[in-house]
Design a protein that fits this description.
By secondary structure, this protein is of the alpha/beta class. The chain has four domains: 1-71; 79-300 and 404-502, Purple Acid Phosphatase, chain A, domain 2 (4-Layer Sandwich), CATH 3.60.21.10; 524-607, Recoverin, domain 1 (Orthogonal Bundle); 621-696, EF-hand (Recoverin, domain 1, Orthogonal Bundle), CATH 1.10.238. Helices cover 52% and strands 9% of the residues. The chain has 28 helices and 18 strands. The strands form five sheets. A six-stranded mixed beta sheet has the order 1-5-6-10-12-11. A hairpin with a 3-residue loop joins strand 5 and strand 6 (270-272). Helix 5 (125-139) packs across helix 7 (198-211), helix 20 (518-540) crosses helix 25 and helix 25 (616-636) packs across helix 28.
Length: 700
């Protein structure tokens, strides 16, 4: 009996270990594909940024188009934004049965909203815009780093990424209670994208923020960025739900996002940030950055920074011959050359900063007298992109330094190794080690950091000797059963208490018999979904894989050793996966240890063609580039109408042609756009946009 018990125990442990290994491999697949997609987004944005930085608009019309393409939120001043998003002129019809809001908001309004969203009702556009308007007014009064104390409430609850999953937010409120004077919340960014109810989450959070401004705190995440929203679904969601007023709502949301605080400090001891830190993170700088200037954190403002450097060179009396092209790109600006005093050395930054401020103020005053501008218009003349005139004794940081501070806290991830290095996996931010964490904690007298940004299987995870806590609140993020969500509660002792959950309707309806085998069935279901996504990635890179396999097939037999298969696949996909371990799920084993790679790739093509009735070579291109094509489409569609107008296409093509040195006449561009407009309605929709690539591929 004893030997039998030991044998059963060994079998059970081996079985559990295999299940855990399958779970970890599945997780690696999901995470690697997700991060590779983020890399593509940043590469695509860097490409457009390069075009922007190296394109000199030939007219004010082109300059306005380029401005709308990437910095659309900045093009509206306060009065213009209110006029554009004029909610007061909108009438709510008597037939509207959804919730109604009146300001100032009361707890009953929040309760009504929650009930309405549970019933799948939609808030009228007038109330959405009014809510965004009031939220923006409130956020503008907040500092970059919000300070929270456990003295005023029993505990503070910190929630991580929600990503448009409203059921998770409902479950958090059900388990933990609604925000109230005795129940404080910190929501740590990434409220939107990926999920289908991002806008509802924003409405709920903003409502509670206005009702309980001292108890509800919101941090900005890397997805609170309009360039990221173009790719990951939030912009599309808004336009689908509000076809008439969707553009106004998106415009207001963009402006609200850039006013979100960057961090929260609990009892001066726990720093809550979305992504992480770097070896250059400076909380003093973060507190003084004009955060609203960074509509999209992905774009580093290279054009403005180059112009600023030219101005500083002029102030120091240096030659600007080499900076001529950058100077030509710049918009007309004030001449800031001093008339008498010699500029101090840049080595003494504090002295130089004071001198610059004094000089700028003198020049503004001189220009005001020349054109007879009144004192009331002083704010419009402040040269804020060059230096801040508010704090005379503070050093002036470059725009690039400020941008990097924000990029690092929104995009970075911890790593077990010492040091700090560029985050090449995501394509943005950095990896920071335990030594970097220790220095930051010691410098600012902190106990530990709370961050989000990474999906964790259990909903939370400690690292760096329990000095960094990752909290993730979107359960079933990759697939039903892929991960739990969690939130953490901190009392006056600042000891974290975790609550895990899974907003899984499927699990709730299982019988007792089904529940006994649920973990195995769930892992199989999640595993199947992961390998399906991985096979799509393999199929999307068919041409590159064939070339990689041929490097091992010197005699052109169409066969390669299975031992070389993993090396070839990783050289193409760069996902960092354990391919040898995954091989049995992807490749049939053969007696001679060889793989007929062409027939294997044909099998992948057949699997995808069963879902899409398109020729495999074209389908490969679409699978590989669909996300990029959709993002490009939304970038060109600057007014978020869901259609590319002839003018938008015309301006974009001129941008591409100048980069690629292709000469095309105005008539040629007009002929091209008319050929893509298949239904001749004067616009290009997304299907026509994709069809154009299909026709080009077929002709090739």
């Amino acid at each position: 009996a004893f030997k039998a018990a030991v044998l059963i125990q060994q079998w059970y442990r081996r079985y559990v270990a295999r299940l855990e290994m399958r779970r970890r491999c599945t997780w690696r697949i999901f995470q690697s594909i997700e991060y590779a997609c983020e890399q593509d987004q940043i590469k695509l944005h860097n490409f457009f940024s390069y075009l922007m930085d190296h394109c000199t608009p030939s007219s004010s019309k082109e300059r306005d188009f380029l401005s709308r393409m990437f910095i659309s939120g900045e093009s509206f001043k306060e009065a213009e934004l209110e006029k554009y998003c004029d909610f007061e002129s909108m009438e709510v019809p008597d037939s509207y049965t959804g919730p109604r809001l009146s300001f100032p908001l009361l707890p009953d309004h929040a309760t009504a909203l929650l009930e309405a969203f549970k019933q799948k009702q939609k808030l009228h556009a007038r109330y959405v815009l009014n809510l965004l308007h009031e939220t923006r007014k409130h956020l503008k009064q907040l500092p970059n780093i919000t300070h929270v104390s456990t003295c005023y409430s029993e505990e503070v609850t910190v929630c991580g990424d929600l990503h448009g999953q409203l059921d998770d937010l409902f479950l958090i409120f059900y388990k933990n209670g609604l925000p109230s004077p005795s129940k404080s919340y910190v929501f740590n960014g990434d409220f939107v994208d990926r999920g289908k109810q991002s806008l509802e989450i924003l409405i709920v959070l903003f409502t509670f923020l206005l009702i309980y401004p001292k108890e509800v705190h919101l941090n900005r995440g890397n997805h609170e960025d309009h360039m990221v929203n173009l790719r990951y679904g939030f912009a599309k969601e808004v336009m689908q739900k509000y076809k008439v007023h969707g553009k106004k709502i998106l415009k207001m949301v963009q402006n609200v996002f850039c006013w979100l605080p960057l961090a929260t400090l609990i009892d001066q001891k726990v720093l809550v940030i979305h992504g992480g830190i770097s070896d250059t993170t400076d909380l003093d700088m973060l507190e003084k950055i004009q955060r609203h200037k960074f509509i999209s954190v992905l774009r580093g403002k290279k054009r403005k920074e180059s112009n600023r450097n030219v101005e500083i060179q002029e102030i120091n009396g240096e030659s600007t011959v080499e900076a001529g092209p950058a100077r030509d790109e710049a918009a007309p600006s004030l001449s800031l050359q001093p008339q008498s005093a010699q500029a101090p050395s840049m080595a003494n930054r504090l002295e130089f900063s004071r001198w610059v401020r004094q000089t700028v103020q003198e020049q503004i005053e001189r220009c005001r007298r020349m054109v007879d501008i009144s004192e009331s218009e002083e704010e419009e003349l402040t040269y804020s992109s060059m230096v801040s005139l508010k704090d005379v004794d503070e050093p002036c940081w470059t725009r690039q330094e400020e941008w990097k501070q924000i990029l690092d806290i929104l995009w970075s991830d911890p790593m077990p190794q010492e040091g700090c290095k560029v985050n090449t996996v995501r394509g943005g931010g950095c990896y920071f080690g335990p030594d970097v964490t220790g220095k930051i904690l010691e410098k600012y007298n902190l106990q530990f950091l709370i961050r989000s940004h990474e999906c964790k299987q259990e909903g939370y995870e400690f690292c760096h000797n329990r000095k960094v806590l990752t909290i993730f609140s979107a359960s079933n993020y990759y697939e039903i059963g892929s991960n739990r969500g969690a939130y953490v509660k901190l009392g006056p002792d600042l000891v974290p208490h975790f609550v895990q959950y899974q907003a899984n309707k499927t699990a709730h309806t299982l019988t007792m018999t089904q529940r006994q085998g649920f973990p195995v069935a769930l892992i199989s279901r999640v595993e199947e979904s992961a390998f399906r996504a991985l096979r799509e990635q393999l199929f999307a890179h068919t041409s590159a894989l064939i070339n990689a396999f041929k490097a091992y097939d010197k005699d052109n037999t169409g066969r390669i050793p299975l031992s070389n298969w993993a090396t070839a696949v990783e050289s193409v996909l760069h996902l960092g996966l354990p391919w040898r371990m995954l091989r049995p799920q992807l490749v049939r084993s053969t007696a001679d240890g060889m793989l007929e790679y062409k027939s294997w790739l044909n099998d992948l093509a057949m699997e995808q063609r069963s879902q899409e009735h398109i020729q495999s070579s074209l389908l490969e291109v679409i699978y590989r580039n669909r996300s990029n094509l959709e993002t490009i489409f939304r970038i060109i569609d600057t007014d978020h109408s869901g259609l590319i107008s002839f003018e938008e296409f015309h301006q974009t093509w001129k941008l591409f042609s100048s980069h690629m040195n292709i000469e095309l006449t105005e008539d040629g561009i007009n002929d091209l756009v008319r050929s893509i407009d298949f239904n001749k309605d004067g616009n290009i929709d997304f299907n026509e946009f994709l069809e154009a690539f299909r026709l080009v591929k077929q002709s090739q």
